Amino acid sequence: MEILKQRILKDGVVKEGNVLKVDKFLNHQMDVKLFNDIGEEFAKRFAGTGVNKILTIESSGIGIACIAAQHFNNCPVIFAKKTLSKNLDGEMFVTQVKSYTKGVTYDVMVSEKYLGKGDKVLIIDDFLANGCALMGLIDIVKQSGAELAGAGIVIEKGFQVGGKTIRDMGVKLESLAIVDSMDNGTITFRD
Amino acid sequence: MEILKQRILKDGVVKEGNVLKVDKFLNHQMDVKLFNDIGEEFAKRFAGTGVNKILTIESSGIGIACIAAQHFNNCPVIFAKKTLSKNLDGEMFVTQVKSYTKGVTYDVMVSEKYLGKGDKVLIIDDFLANGCALMGLIDIVKQSGAELAGAGIVIEKGFQVGGKTIRDMGVKLESLAIVDSMDNGTITFRD
What are phi and psi of A121, to 5 degrees? Predict the structure, then answer.
């Protein structure tokens, strides 16, 4: 997605440890107009798949998923929660997700009320690196008996294992920008 | 906002300890069409205030804030983060917020790059109860030198102190549904 790649080149900052900071437009300050372009692109790439629910994970995926849902007939968006709070009770689908960024393992959960047989689920998230969060969300979709339409990712770090692992599972994975390297601070995209 | 009140009566569940669960449409599964109605209503109530940035806090505020921003000329949305992650560095505005729901105190932070003099900030959140989160966000706006246009809340628990405290500070606070009591599971709204 050319407009996204240009934005990453303009406003992304490469930090030590292969960290790509895009907090100017994606995951701290959010550019809602760009999110609509992203949502439109996801709708094109998943056209005809019958998506009727979008699943994401707190926090950075939520804004993108909500704006994208407008391009999928305003379908419901569910965000998986990372910790047990008093306001989420009842039966939950639960999986474990390791966050390398934060160095912790979370319980990730979705209420059984909102996912199940007959649902066609598109997973949306901002980043794909090692794939732990996405694997966790796929596991939740499987537990629920819903059908996985695929996964839409804004930025994939193509030099980490997540993308290959998940494509090898047969999942329709669409990443709008795949960064193949950031050596010496220069971002190179996959064609 | 009548359509919201009707939705709360239809899909809200009152739980022990004055907990109002609205996870069917607001803060776990999200109804994006309703969020657009909410955004439109915020735009009416804050018309002419010159809002050019929306500030919210992870996680439940993000979807509402992003959809609402479309009704404020696609202005940027910033979500305050609750913990220090490796991807947020540099200078930050920081404040402390106690979460009664989760029983912990968070550091809440916003990058100094994205708020400052010349900004007119609308704070948006899903719930207002004791007001701790909102007070924290107001503190961050003050630290930044930006001007506070006001705060838009989806559901205010009118029987808790937050709303009164914040209105007494002179803040333009607009809550789209104010619940005055939930005694015996019956939700009563303020007129």
Answer: -105, 130
Mean pLDDT of B76-83: 93
Nearest to B21 among A32, A87, A114 (CB): A87
Distance, CA of A13 to CA of A16 (rounded, Å): 10
Q: Is B87 on the interface with A (CB under 8 A)?
A: yes
Domain B2-81+90-186 annotated CATH 3.40.640.10: no
More confident residue, A9 or B105: A9
Q: Is A146 on the interface with B (CB under 8 A)?
A: no
B30, B74, B87: residue with CB nearest A23: B87
CA angle A54, A120, B4 (to 5 degrees): 45
Asked if residues A93 and A146 have their Cβ atoms less than 8 Å apart, the reply is: no
- Chain A residue numbers touching B77 (CB-CB < 8 A): 29-30, 32, 63
pLDDT value for A103? 79
Strands (E), B29-119: 29-30, 53-57, 77-80, 92-99, 104-111
Per residue in B111-133, pLDDT (tens digit) is 999 999 999 999 999 999 999 99
Cα–Cα distance for residue pair B42/B50, rounded to 1 Å:
13
All structural domains of chain B with their residue ranges:
2-81+90-186
Q: Under CATH, what is the fold of the domain A2-189? A: Rossmann fold (3.40.50)
Residue A88 has pLDDT above 60, yes or no: no
Q: Is B40 on the interface with A (CB under 8 A)?
A: no
Residue of A nearest to B33 (CA): A74
Q: Where are the beta strands (DSSP E) in chain A?
A: 13-15, 19-21, 29-30, 53-57, 77-80, 92-99, 104-111, 120-128, 147-157, 173-181, 188-189
Q: Is B11 exposed, middle or buried (0-12, 13-18, 19+ CB in 10 A)?
A: middle
Q: Residue B1: how many CB atoms within 10 A of its CB? A: 20
Q: Are B23 and B59 in contact (CB under 8 A)?
A: no
Residue A71 backbone phi and psi in degrees, to 5: -95, 5
In the predicted model, is pLDDT for residue A25 greater than 70? yes
In one-letter notation, the amino acid at residue A105 is T
